[in-house]
Amino acid sequence: MEPGERDVRAETRALRQRVIAERQRAERDASLADKYEKQFALAPEPLKPLSARLRDLHRRVQARHLATARVIELHATWTEEWHNRADAAAARPRFVAAVASWLGMPSATVTLRGSEHVAAVAAASDPTARAANELEILMAEGPVTDATARGTFIAGAGRSLLDWWPRYGPAAAELGVRAVVAAPLGPPETRIGALCAYGSEPVIPVGVAIATDCMAEALTQMILADVWEPGACQDSPAPPVFDEADYRSVIHQAAGMVSVQFDCGVDVAEDLLAARAFADGVPVERIAIQVVCGGLSLR
User: Fold this and answer.
1) What does the alpha-carbon distance between residue 44 and residue 36 come to, in Å, rounded to a whole number?
2) Residue 294 burial (CB < 10 Å; 0-12/13-18/19+)?
3) 62: Cβ–Cβ under 8 A, 6 or more apart, which residues?
4) What are the residue ranges spanned by the domains of the chain?
5) In this predicted structure, what is the pLDDT of residue 164?
């Protein structure tokens, strides 16, 4: 058995363990939601609002766990199928492609942004999504920019894209993007990026808005646990939202910031990032994201 084969099998096995864990968590939240639903029916009037809030909270968390389980399962299945195909030259399935499929949209991106709302790292499901993301960076406007900066849900289709974003809208239409849905990532007080789905028709399918909001919550949990809390999910590791190629730009950005901080060359800054990563026992891209998105100081 080749080393690569062992790695893929171990990876998909770990992903399926995560699916089981997420479904178990969904069952627990469903049970709690049912409990508060019963309490709501029996509670005196002053306590009904509390029971309703707790019921709705656990229903929302249940939906998030189910969405996480489904998209991870889909990614694991696609990865296994890719690995078993005779055509080894085919591109490895991207996790964000599974996200787009779950949303029912042709394309999607997951973007993390730094303190100045400059893209730090982005994962795209396909070339159209990648081009739409790069276009937004060039135009300095668009759904990801607004969703992250405002911390609000963004949805638009057809003419509204041209009205809201005079530069981005027409250029996106040339790519075949005629509808967008974007939801911010991160807790309300610290937005770290956005999930954006792209459609080829000038309409937003029914249910996509709610699904995108739910998936944004799921991705937030995956990313924060994987990047800011390494080891928090050792029993069921987070899926690879970002590929190695996605991290190149964030490492360069972090090195530039560290070089200014220490008044040193970029090569020395990269060594400092690597040293911190080694000391913390985590990949260097995690430290780079914390520097760019979280303001981590290496002093």
Assistant:
1) 13
2) middle
3) 26, 29, 30, 33
4) 3-84, 95-228, 244-294
5) 94
Nearest alpha carbon to residue 291 among 112, 67, 168: 112
Q: Which two tokens stand for residue 43?
A: 């509670």
H or E element that contains 59: helix 48-84
Q: Which residue has the tokens 């050792």?
A: 234
> What is residue 134's predicted lDDT score, i.e. its pLDDT?
87
Q: Which residue has the tokens 């709501």?
A: 40
Which CATH code, of 3.30.1780.10, 3.30.360.10, 3.30.450.40, 3.20.20.30, is assigned to 95-228? 3.30.450.40
For residue 120, give the 3-state DSSP assignment.
strand
C-alpha closest to that of 194 among 252, 142, 266: 142
Helical H segments across 140-242, by residue range: 143-150, 159-164, 168-174, 208-223
- Pull the structure tokens for residue 289: 């994201």
Q: Are 109 and 124 in contact (CB under 8 A)?
A: yes
What is the pLDDT at residue 245?
Answer: 59
Q: Give the pLDDT score at 108.
A: 96
Distance CA 273, CA 261 (A): 12
CA 183, CA 151: separation in Å to the nearest integer? 8
Query: 3-class DSSP state for residue 124?
Result: strand
Counting DSSP H helices and E strands in the chain, the numbers are 11, 5
Q: Which residues contact 181 (CB under 8 A, 6 or more apart)?
A: 103, 105, 143, 154, 155, 196, 197, 199, 204, 208, 209, 212
- Ranges of residues in the chain whose predicted pLDDT is under 70: 1-6, 86-89, 114-120, 225-239, 244-249, 293-295
**What does the pLDDT look like over 160-209, one tens digit per residue?**
999 999 999 999 999 999 999 999 998 887 788 899 999 999 999 989 99
Residue with tokens 């399918």: 205
Per-residue pLDDT, 114: 60
Annotation: CATH topology of 244-294: Arc Repressor Mutant, subunit A (1.10.10)
